[in-house]
Amino acid sequence: MSSLGVIVGRMQPLHLGHIEVIEKALIENDIVVVFLGSAQFSRTHINPFTVQERISFLKTAFPNSKERGLKLVPINDIQAIIRKDWQDYLSGKLLALNIVNTNDITIKYYAGSNEDAIWYTDWANEIEIVDRYKNKITATDIRNSLILGTNTWKEKVPKEIHNLVSNSFPDEFRTRIDC
């Protein structure tokens, strides 16, 4: 039986915490699907990057992603109120990939917290909580650093994507300090 790792995140932007979870999933599974959430939103303060930019971040950070079984799938926010609607949406996205027969695969979901995991308890065969607060890296702090023009974000983002992140971040969000 094959194993499929599933990760859902906005990755606005991709940071070292995301890298750690994806690497873990790649080691533990035959295929890993990263669902990039809020795909329909970009150029806002909480979603400054387009989904194509985020895919570019991931492909640069994982240059041999295809050989390693990494699939990147944009998903929209669907305002699901009940778990089944969200689970059906994700199941449909998985089936559209034509990579798995869901009857012959074990799905392992990687959640950042118990609160996140609740949405997947009766969907995934296995859930692993990867504490999102363990390494004290948040995309919010990274975005704030980019807005303020400080370089603290660079410690939290893979070096390979520094230029991509900096060049893709909307200028209109950057704080201008005139002296």
Features:
179 residues, Rossmann fold, 7 helices, 5 strands
Percent range of helical residues: 25-40%
Count of separate DSSP helical elements: 7
* Tally of individual domains: 1
SS-based structural class?
Answer: alpha/beta
CATH fold topology: Rossmann fold
Main beta-sheet strand count, sense and barrel state: 5 strands, parallel
From the 3D coordinates, which CATH architecture would you assign?
Answer: 3-Layer(aba) Sandwich
Main β-sheet, spatial strand arrangement? 3-2-1-4-5
SSE sequence, one letter per element? EHEHHEHEHEHH
Large-scale geometry: globular
What is the fourth-level CATH superfamily? HUPs
Uncertain spans, ≥5 residues at pLDDT below 50?
none
Question: What is the name of the CATH class?
Answer: Alpha Beta
Mean pLDDT across residues: 92
Please tally the β strands and state the result.
5
β content, as a range? 15-25%
How far apart, in Å, are the first and last alpha carbons?
63 Å
Radius of gyration: 17 Å
